[in-house]
Design goal:
alpha/beta, Arc Repressor Mutant, subunit A, Aspartate Aminotransferase, domain 1, 3 domains, three-stranded antiparallel beta sheet, 15 helices
Length: 483
């Protein structure tokens, strides 16, 4: 039996994500016994037409209800009300109640992982396209690693990372980024977040301290710092020339607790994509030397910088004694390959290696040996060519689509792995821009609200749209859904 005459409607005005509103409408019908256990729900397209939403929204809602135990899916038949309904009134996703019936209070500052049930395309994180990954070459490298060095690699390893990979990275960095460093200056880590954590713990320690960083900026960096130490974050304004050293000068002149760390992304500022101008680069280095604080240089997008952009050398190449440099191999290979690296003065790298040991006794020696194979065999160089060519095509396709579909509504600032979109015309007010972002989210396009990028959580008529993980066709489809 199918409940074809089931009467459903969404609450007006609705609260929360659209798919949860749909899920609540169906669940209410089940709780009120308007549809009984074992009865088939109307078809997905039928439900979409009745409620005036997309098929994907309906599917997301039904998957949510299935996870909660209210409905079940039968292959090639459809969705049915579960025979055994939940005995407790379980809240839908997003509730603050204790998950799994925990017998203790859940700390209020914790936030749940964002649901991806209604996400068709995620433009919020800059990732490599796994479809471009050198999977066959990587598979062969893993096989050689285990065949030639299996017992050694499966045992204990150097806490700094396999020396073969560190040596290969030194050559790669010298050729690609003009960074002169020896293998003893490198640490191989699982992620840039781990590198930030190690450096923060080393320089702030249990006593905490002041950290200056860019604003707008990267909330993932802020959270890594705050979780690693009791840090007092101080913002530096960002404009078309990157972070403003005048703000840092004001901070240093004000007295108070000393500055422990300056965090910059000078090649391609996150999220705006602005490169740090040459005069500002020199000034930041002068201030670091004068006041004796380290600069943590985050450079995950270097390999995607636009052709002809004439990128500056990394700061660490100009002053290796003042700068700690972090790069990320995952950005050019695949999100599932967790491999980043840190370059520091040799005396410091030994101390950071000891700090890293408290987080992770060692890395992944098999993966590290395999990655060294890819670098030495030239596969990483070939991969760089592939991803740079793909990124240029995707950036061009996205800019073209936005120019035609959103002209007069958004301004576009191109970056290495993303575009920085700012509101214009009717979308210039932050409130109107936020409404537009939420509309995109309701259609399954994940974009961040402007306040996500502001340290003080101020509303911004802006967002960052990543493009490297999607084909030109997928990007143009997405833009058509935004209008």
């Amino acid at each position: 039996m199918r409940a074809n005459e089931l009467n459903l409607s969404l609450a007006v005005p609705g609260k929360g994500p659209l798919y949860l509103q749909v899920a609540q409408a169906v669940r209410t019908a089940i709780e009120e016994r308007r549809i009984g256990p074992g009865v088939a729900l109307p078809g997905v397209r039928d439900l979409a037409e009745r409620l005036g939403v997309t098929v994907n929204t309906i599917l997301a809602a039904l998957r949510e209800l299935q996870a909660q135990g209210w409905v079940e899916s039968r292959e090639r038949v459809g969705f049915f009300v579960a025979d055994a309904l939940p005995s407790a009134q379980k809240p839908l996703s997003g509730s603050r109640s204790a998950p799994g019936g925990a017998g203790f209070e859940i700390p209020a500052h914790l936030s749940p992982i964002s649901s991806t049930a209604n996400v068709m395309m995620d433009f919020s994180e800059g990732m490599a396209d796994a479809r471009l990954a050198p999977a066959q070459a990587l598979g062969r490298a893993y096989q050689r690693a285990l065949k030639l060095k299996g017992p050694e690699l499966l045992g204990s390893a150097d806490v700094k990372g396999h020396r073969r990979l560190r040596e290969a990275l030194c050559t790669h960095l010298r050729v690609q980024r003009d960074i002169e460093a020896g293998p003893d200056q490198l640490l191989v880590l699982s992620s840039a977040a781990m590198a930030i954590t190690v450096v923060t713990q080393a320089f702030l320690g249990p006593q905490g301290g002041v950290v200056a960083l860019e604003n707008p900026g990267n909330p993932n960096v802020w959270e890594s710092i705050k979780q690693a130490a009791k840090a007092e974050l101080r913002p530096l304004a960002v404009d078309a020339e990157g972070a403003d050293p005048a703000d840092l000068e004001t901070l240093l002149a004000a007295g108070g607790p000393p500055l422990r760390l300056l965090v910059l992304s000078p090649q391609c500022q996150y999220p705006t994509g602005a490169p740090l101008s040459e005069p500002r680069r020199r000034r930041f280095l002068e201030l670091a030397r004068q006041h004796r604080f380290p600069i943590l240089e985050l450079d995950p997008e270097y390999d995607y910088l636009m052709a002809g952009a004439s990128p500056h050398r990394p700061l660490v190449a100009d002053d290796p004694g003042q700068v700690i440099y972090v790069g990320d191999l995952s950005r050019i290979l695949a999100p599932g390959l967790r491999a980043a690296y840190l370059v520091a003065p040799e005396a410091l790298s030994d101390l950071l290696a000891k700090a890293r040991r408290h987080l992770d006794w060692q890395g992944d020696p098999v993966q590290e040996w395999a990655l060294s194979e890819l670098i030495l065999d030239g596969e990483v160089q070939r991969q760089l060519f592939r991803v740079r060519k793909a990124a240029a095509e995707r950036r061009e396709a996205l800019e073209d689509a936005l120019h035609h579909a959103m002209a007069g509504r958004v301004e576009v600032q191109p970056g290495a792995m993303a575009l920085w979109l700012t509101g214009s015309g009717p979308l210039e007010p932050p409130g109107a821009f936020s409404v537009w972002i939420r509309g995109c989210q309701s259609r399954g396009l994940k974009l961040r609200l402007g306040k996500h990028f502001d340290l003080m959580q101020r509303d911004l008529a802006a967002t960052r749209m990543e493009f490297t993980a999607f084909t030109p066709e997928e990007l143009q489809v997405a833009v058509a859904m935004m209008v």
